[in-house]
Write a structure and sequence with these properties.
The protein is of the alpha/beta class. The protein contains eleven helices and eight strands.
Length: 290
């Protein structure tokens, strides 16, 4: 019998995972009534069936892939539907702190489901690119390994509920933290009139970093507002040792400001684009002067 995967949310990552699953023989469902045109388009392209929310309780697996600020509310919506009709595994794959993961686990297990803590590292799957890894943890995590035969890359962590969330946030704290710090200093250098010199120096002394920033900073700008809640989750996860939580609370504020500026077509976004254009266009003549 074909397994049914219910996906409460279908953003870029969720829809791409759904496409992998349907292309590899599984049935994926969601509730699309009242959703945006973009969501419905992604669902159609991924082969997702539109069913009422109550159908979630007839699924084999609920795969929650959503912005972290919605993770708990999705679990509560699940629990409000009653009890599963059979064995059901609820996998929360969102960028939440271990404490939030445990909270979600309590909600869904009290509703009669088995809970898997998860975290996704990587970009949405696409042809020719390294696929994202779905790390899973907890006593029931092995139930998701079957998805490796259906287009996904699932990796089992030897740890309790919260371990996969801890890994995801540790990774995101480095990668998205580095992007924020780079963008912040690009803006500062631009405001101070030294952007051309900084661009040349980064190309000369840190070429790998500059190549990475040339891709990651433009990719970040339209997503910045969505990264605010993730920085808040990282702050909660890190705690107040060495004041690490204060670093990520500040980065949440930075991403909020960048998101607003990008939405408004502001000067900051234009300054970042100009800096990256400088870095791409610098001639070797300036490099040889150093």
């Amino acid at each position: 019998m074909t397994k049914t995967i219910y996906m409460p949310a279908l953003g870029n990552m969720g829809a791409a995972l759904a496409r992998q699953l349907t292309a590899n023989g599984l049935r994926v469902t969601s509730t699309l009534d009242g959703r945006s045109a973009d969501t419905r388009k992604r669902a159609a392209e991924a082969g997702v069936e539109n069913l009422p929310a109550a159908s979630m309780m007839q699924a084999d697996i609920v795969l929650s892939v959503a912005p972290p600020e919605h993770a708990v509310s999705i679990a509560r919506q699940f629990s409000a539907l009653g009890r599963p009709s059979g064995r059901l595994v609820y996998a929360d794959m969102n960028a939440v702190s271990p404490d939030t993961a445990r909270q979600i686990g309590t909600i869904v297990t009290n509703a009669g489901a088995e809970f898997v803590d998860g975290g996704i590292i990587g970009l949405p799957p696409s042809p020719g690119k390294r696929p994202p890894v779905l790390y899973v943890a907890g006593p029931e995590a092995g139930n998701l390994l079957d998805l490796n035969a259906h287009g996904l890359q699932v990796a089992l962590l030897d740890g309790p509920i919260g371990a996969a969330s801890a890994l995801k946030l540790s990774y995101a704290g480095i990668t998205k933290g580095l992007i924020a710090m780079a963008a912040a200093m690009m803006l500062t250098a631009s405001r101070s009139g030294v952007a051309p010199a900084l661009a040349v120096e980064l190309k000369h002394s840190q070429p790998q970093l500059m190549d990475s920033f040339s891709r990651s900073v433009p990719d970040m700008m339209p997503k910045a507002a969505r990264w605010v809640s993730e920085m808040k989750e990282i702050a909660a996860f890190a705690g107040d040792g060495f004041s690490i939580n204060r670093i990520y609370d500040a980065l949440a504020g930075f991403y909020r400001a960048v998101g607003r500026d990008y939405a408004d077509g502001g000067e900051g976004s234009e300054a970042l684009r100009s800096f990256l254009t400088l870095a791409a266009d610098q001639t070797s003549e300036q490099d040889t002067r150093s």
